[in-house]
Amino acid sequence: MTMPQRRTRPLYRRRRFDLRATAMFFGLLATALIAGGFAVRALAEAAQRRPVWVTILLCVTVAALLAHRRRRRLSAARIARRTGEALHRATATALDALDAPPPAPAAPVPAPAAPRDDAPPAAYEDDPPFVYDFDALSPEEFEEATAALCVRDGCSDVEVVGGAGDLGADVLAVSPGGRRIVIQCKRYSDDNKVGSQDLQRFGGTCFTVHEADLALVVTTSEFTAPAEEYAAQCGIVCVPREALLAWSEGRAPAPWETDTAGRGTHDREVCVPEV
């Protein structure tokens, strides 16, 4: 008796290529990629606008992954309760941030008051004294400091004219009494005194050329005895170091106040260099 043979199916059957199925597969894949790109873009925009919500979503996702990894079965009600608590905390934080008062603006710095046109000239008692370190000034800065002292004490038309061809005049000014002042500035060291030759050169131009009513020689040093004698003869006011410091610090009046008589155009003698 012969046994019937059982027909066996081949283990592997090669499937025929289906163009329609392949096209549909790639179409679905492209659609999934495009949808994923839009989702990532929307998530990035949401992270910029609402970082709190994105943070909450990430926390929930991480918690779900950890729970799945540990194979803990959480009920739907428990997940919903925890999610609601997280949303409540996030909402409270956002409301607190919105309710916080804005920072107070910084108080504006008041602009300095402009000087009045009818303001009187500088008063000696009210204006702070100019305290200079004359030893640290250059000759040009010493001329500027002397001019500033004249302005402080009420002089007008103050001008620094020192330089090449100044003919002995470094500062020109008009005193509060209307006298024309010509000043020569000598920025000398302590061991270099102003001699009679310096006074003679200045005396030959201060009255005749610059038409001074009052001539001053201001120095950071001292005057020799012959220089002081020549200055007294010609009517030149000598301002040595100590007198300059007293004038600058407000301990002494301005030099033109001490020489109230002055030398008018009719009573001054012509000072010529000594031979």
Keywords, separated by commas or semicolons:
275 residues; Trna Endonuclease, Chain: A, domain 1; 5 strands; 43% helix; Restrct_endonuc-II-like; restriction endodeoxyribonuclease activity; DNA binding; Restrct_endonuc_IV_Mrr; Type_IV_Methyl-Rstrct_Enzyme
What does this structure look like?
- Helix 1 packs across helix 2.
- About 9% of the residues have low confidence.
- This protein folds into two domains: 77 residues, no CATH class; 125 residues, Trna Endonuclease, Chain: A, domain 1 (3-Layer(aba) Sandwich).
- It has 275 residues and is of the alpha/beta class.
- A hairpin with a 5-residue loop joins strand 2 and strand 3.
- It contains eight helices and five strands, in the order H-H-H-H-E-E-E-H-E-H-E-H-H.
- The chain has a five-stranded mixed beta sheet, sandwiched between helices.
Put the structure in a nutshell.
This protein has 275 residues and is α/β, with parallel strands linked by helices. It has eight helices and five strands; from the N terminus they run H-H-H-H-E-E-E-H-E-H-E-H-H.
Topology:
Layout: H1 19-49, H2 51-69, H3 76-99, H4 139-152, E1 156-160, E2 171-174, E3 180-186, H5 196-203, E4 214-219, H6 225-234, E5 236-239, H7 241-248, H8 255-258
Parallel strand pairs: 3-4, 4-5
Antiparallel strand pairs: 1-2, 2-3
Helix pairs in contact: 1-2, 2-3, 5-6
